[in-house]
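Hi everyone,

Forwarding the result from last night's run.
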Amino acid sequence: LEAESHMRQLSNTTSSAETDREIKFIQENIPLTKDSTILDLACGNGRHTNRLANIYSQVTGLDYTKQLLDDASQNELINNGHFVNGNMLKIPFKNESFDLVLSMWQSLGYFSTERENNEVFRESSRVLKNGGYFFIEVNNPIRVITDLMINGQIDSDGKITVKGKLEDKMG
């Protein structure tokens, strides 16, 4: 529960303007239509799912953490989307279901084995339609380290501590 609470705090630190920039980048660089099917993998609090659902007609947010999904369904009214509690190691959708699988906020690579990390790519490929897109956000490691040096730290157990009040960092 401590990890879930910590993830909830971190997931609320991204500004609305940053989310808008990310959505604009997706719109400008991935050829989608209004009827495209989109899976927001590890959607967290649904910030991308909610914004995309106001643009595209079939958007699904998938996350393992029920608390984050509860937050997601309350954050914003979504017209064309829904949230599903599930595991990215076994994505609960049929083959070739989505035009875009989206993985934002460095959501990949945290499993204990490379086999599990690779399974996320296999599962994402399985649910992508032929000719679909897999979009992954990966932060620049220098930026991440710099941000942690300025705003917080990671202890030996991997716990991230952010200095100051989270509200002050939401911009």
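The radius of gyration is 16 Å.

Cheers,
N.
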